[in-house]
Amino acid sequence: MFPKFIKLILALLTFSYGIYQFIEDYIGNGIMMTLLSAIFILLYFKNEIIFLAFLRLRKQDFDGTEKWLMRISNVEKNLVRKQQGYYNYLFGIINSQKNLTQAEKFFKTAIKLGLSMNHDLAMAKMSLAGIYLQKRRKREAQHLLTEAKKLDKHGMLTGQMKMIQQQMKRI
Description:
Blueprint: H1 4-23, H2 27-45, H3 48-58, H4 62-70, H5 75-78, H6 81-95, H7 100-113, H8 118-134, H9 138-151, H10 158-170
């Protein structure tokens, strides 16, 4: 994994070389260099390690996800703010299986840093509401669940939200 400033430098260099290739009438090389610089810019905003960790998470391989995330060193320096949010979001999902206190900390940090997608933010708030519910903090859980409902515009999390609401009624 390259630090983010190196990705920007590589993008600038490949783009400028692409412009030079256009000037020298090597149009194919110029297009290829421009596309390569676009890939470096994409990798600046979307971290490749976090992307690979998401792929592991889709296979329900929590140990593999954690191994990929542990490869990121110096999170504050190497990741953009939203990427730090997803880093904490993934650790929150992993720790929700093991340690609820740690998962709560990671989900709170992820919500504070922000997530790009509304359904990811809704999932983080819903998971945090489930943790609060297990800790018998019903009022905070209800507040987070209503926020998650507002963010879940496509209705992807309605089944899980209904389960949490049924658990709330029992308390």
